[in-house]
Amino acid sequence: MIEQTLTVVALDGLTAFLEAPEKKSCEGCNGRCGSQVFSKLFGTAKKTLPYKFPQPLKIGQKVTLSLDDSHVVKHAFVVYMLPLCLSLISALFVAQVGLLSEGWQIIAAIFGAIIGYSIAKTRVKSLKHEIKVIKIHPISIPLTQIDGD
Questions:
Q1: In this predicted model, what pLDDT tens digit does every residue of 50-92 receive, in sequence order?
Q2: CA gap 3, 135 in Å, rounded
Q3: What is residue 31's predicted lDDT score, i.e. its pLDDT?
């Protein structure tokens, strides 16, 4: 199970819009690694996850959700491996059965990847993730100093 604690940033009835806290970069490279370069290139726009709860929540409240690991593995396999495998199979098919030149093998590999991508795109829409609520954290009351203490 993958667990993540999210914060309620907006409400619409019983639907709460959740946002993950920003993760700090590692201290080993001081922000010069590949992940930092990509985050600077593609921006750091935060994504919100809408989730309908059986009870009303408040903005700022924390919620811990979990996701089954097997769904993530299936999802990754479909997205990454299906286009790659269809690309290789189509190139090998054209090379061995069609006995065509290298240029045709490259074209067949590209078409195989495009077909694999389109199949993966439709399969991903059908995959459903079962998100479970682990804990709804109570809103903490800020501590203030009382005069005379």
A1: 989 988 899 989 999 988 777 777 788 888 999 999 999 999 9
A2: 10
A3: 58
Q: Quick one: tokens of 22? A: 């920003």
Axis crossing angle, helix 82-96 with helix 102-126, rounded to the nearest 10: 150
Q: Say yes or no: 140 and 93 in one domain.
A: no
The verdict on 53 and 115 lying in the same domain is no
Integer-rounded Cα Rg, in Å, for the chain is 24
Structure-block tokens of residue 12 = 């619409």
Q: Are residues 119 and 137 in the same domain?
A: no
Q: Which residues are bridge partners to 52 per DSSP?
A: 15
Amino acid at 21: P
Collapse the DSSP code of 51 into the 3-class scheme (helix H, G, I; strand E, B; otherwise coil) and give the result. strand
Provide the domain limits for residue 102: 69-128
11 and 63: one domain?
Answer: yes
For tokens 């806290």, what's the residue? 21
